[in-house]
Structures are given as C-alpha cells and as structure tokens.
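Subject: for your reference before the review

Hello V.,

The reviewers asked for a structural picture of the protein, and I figured it would be easier to keep everything in one thread rather than splitting it across files. Below is the amino acid sequence we used in the manuscript, unchanged from the supplementary table.
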Amino acid sequence: MTKSLPHRQFLKQQLYSFKMVELKAIIEQLMEFNKILDDLENIEVHLEDEDKAILLLCALLRAFESFKDTMLYVTPVYFIFLVEFRVLFN
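And here is what came back from the structure prediction:
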C-alpha cells in the first residue's frame, strides 16, 4: 500500500468522516471501519485506542445515542468495547 501524502490524507478523511447508515448491516459497517484502521496502520499512521473508540462511537446511528452516552459518560469501558470489537472482527 502506498504511503504517499495524498493516500494518507484520503484514508484519514475516510476515517474522520465515517458514519454508519441504516441501510447497511452493522457488522458490515464495523468491518469497513476496521479496514480503514488497518489500512492506516499499514502505512504507519498510528492512533490511540481511545481515539479509535471515540471515532467509532461518534459514527453510530442515532438509535444508539443512549448506548453512546453510556460509553462516553457513565463508564470508561469504551476501551474494553474497542478491544472486544478488534478481537471479534479481525
């Protein structure tokens, strides 16, 4: 995979603008999110687990608002959530 600046910026744009849609299966969208993260890792762009978790929570559908709020404000388990996500979908 190319490490060029335009490619790196393209992948970052994909990550930061990633939003889930209702018409696609959640599992498919989680795999898409994970692929973007893997592509970034492959070109040596490293993100903190906390940042990955927050980006994923922000990408969730409105139907998951209460879940998102719980993960962000009630308990610090979003780290565990991200680790479990990576184990399940890798």
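For the response letter, the relevant points are probably these. Residues 26-42 form the longest helix (17 residues). Residues 5-89 form one domain.

Happy to draft the paragraph if you're swamped.

O.
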